Amino acid sequence: MSLLLGALAGVALDARFGEVRRWHPLVGFGRLAQWLEGRLNGAGGRGGRAHGVLGWCLAVLPPVLLAGWLGTRFGGWWDALALYFALGLNSLAQHALPVAQALRLGQLDEARRRVGYLVSRDTTQLDAAGVARAGTESVLENGSDAVFAALFWFLVGGAPGVVLYRLANTLDAMWGYRNARFERFGWAAARIDDALNYVPARLVAITYALLGDTRRALRCWRRQAPQWDSPNAGPVMAAGAGALGLSLGGAASYHGCEEQRPRLGEGPPARARDIERALNRVYAGVLLWLALLLAVGGVLHA
């Protein structure tokens, strides 16, 4: 019951206050990660896999142990605060809704700029359909990474669990690139993040399917997800696109190189309103998870 109350409190804090504007712990962690990577990998990417494993352990394990110790001192209050710092639901909405609004007003340059905060692909040459597609994909995938997976690991391991997940996910975003600099050094960060997201991503795919066209979502998941290069983003976005009845994927430019990605979903291309529809699915999914947790908690406590 304490974790359930912590989950409710953490979600409520995120809804009320959103992302911390100053002195966010992840900002300090990012600087630490940059320093460690510079020392262990160097500008030329000389570090091997062992260096990456060492860097991951030095960056992640001390904060996780600290989170566990603080939990013994402050209990449920610390649990709720740790989840609040890890959740990104309010932040996701604050970044996604301006993209949809700019598209609706015909402000393509502003929409390109805004969606660039959400995705790693090049956005300067996207047309309106490309911006809508990128925004919708980002909401579905980041809903899994920044919201549901954080909730999952909080329920599994409390404050230490959610701190472990959020820091591992941050390192993947910083080190998990397949390029000359990070191919070896970032291998551990990428693989660990894949492992931590494996179960949550499939729960999210089921959640999206239940909140839309379930049969089509499950069909797209089964047929299309294996073609996607990410073992976790594939199920999430295929099921999400199928549930929404639209098509995602296709060409995208990364660092000047165009990639032809497999198609996900079925139906017409994404439009501005689909960014909002995807965000509404994330909100509804969070409410569904919390309702299920309340039901389970009530049964166990009876």
Automatic annotation (TrEMBL):
Pathway: Cofactor biosynthesis; adenosylcobalamin biosynthesis
A biological process from GO: cobalamin biosynthetic process
Domain of life the protein comes from: Bacteria
Compartments, as annotated in UniProt: Cell membrane
Subcellular location, principal: membrane
Cellular compartments per GO CC: plasma membrane
Keyword entries, A-Z: Cell membrane, Cobalamin biosynthesis, Membrane, Transmembrane, Transmembrane helix
Spans traversing the lipid bilayer: 53-70, 146-168, 282-300
Keyword Membrane: yes
Function noted in UniProt: Converts cobyric acid to cobinamide by the addition of aminopropanol on the F carboxylic group.
Family: Belongs to the CobD/CbiB family.
Name of the protein: Cobalamin biosynthesis protein CobD
Organism annotation: Pseudomonas flexibilis
Organism phylogeny: Bacteria, Pseudomonadati, Pseudomonadota, Gammaproteobacteria, Pseudomonadales
